[in-house]
Amino acid sequence: MDNTKKLGLIIGSLRKDSINRMVAEYIVSQLPENIEVEEIEIAQLPLYNQDYDKQTIESYDQVRQKIKEVDTVLIVTPEHNRTLPAALKNVIDIASRPHGDSAWSGKKVAVVTASPGTYGGRECGLDVRKSMQALSAKVMIAPEVYLSHASDSIEDGKVSNEKTQQYLTKFADALVQFIEE
Ligand SMILES: Cc1cc2nc3c(=O)[nH]c(=O)nc-3n(C[C@H](O)[C@H](O)[C@H](O)COP(=O)(O)O)c2cc1C
């Protein structure tokens, strides 16, 4: 029996040395082999405009299709000005349209935020959850991960702090259960 599951990964940061990308890489390293991970790229997407619903935009079609194809989407993202980074909001909007054909409807979605700051990007994490609930996605409830002081856990481009590794492994285990449900 084929027990392969597809996980789409969205990184909310466009930055080359993104902490969130490092956190995502650690989580992905903890997943079993039957979970195929594919990054859903968001940097190249033109800013959403409702007029485009009547047109064919190739990059929009591709990203909508990718989200539809995967079993679960994992979003790992920083917080910008106490809410979502613009590029992340953009892909959420793009994939929510055209009206009646949202890629988010019924989609399993898990959210992780990480920040060098004290609050771990929590406001952003909560706002992503709010949008996803409004879009009828199935949001992974627990554990909630808003990783604060995240830069302190990174060395040579990797999550190196043992406690943070354990924390993220616990999340990865719960994510596997969520994907398999
Ligand atoms: C425009 C902008 C707004 C930011 N706002 C917040 C914020 O509201 N909360 C927070 O914890 N960090 C904020 N930061 C700091 C980011 O958390 C930090 O730059 C982080 O490293 C970005 O994630 P990345 O390393 O994955 O790119 C902001 C950074 C930028 C560039």
TrEMBL record:
Its EC number is 1.-.-.-. Its cofactor is FMN. This is NAD(P)H-dependent oxidoreductase. GO terms for molecular function: FMN binding; oxidoreductase activity. Keywords: Flavoprotein, FMN, Oxidoreductase. Pfam families: FMN_red. Residues 6-151 form the NADPH-dependent FMN reductase-like domain.
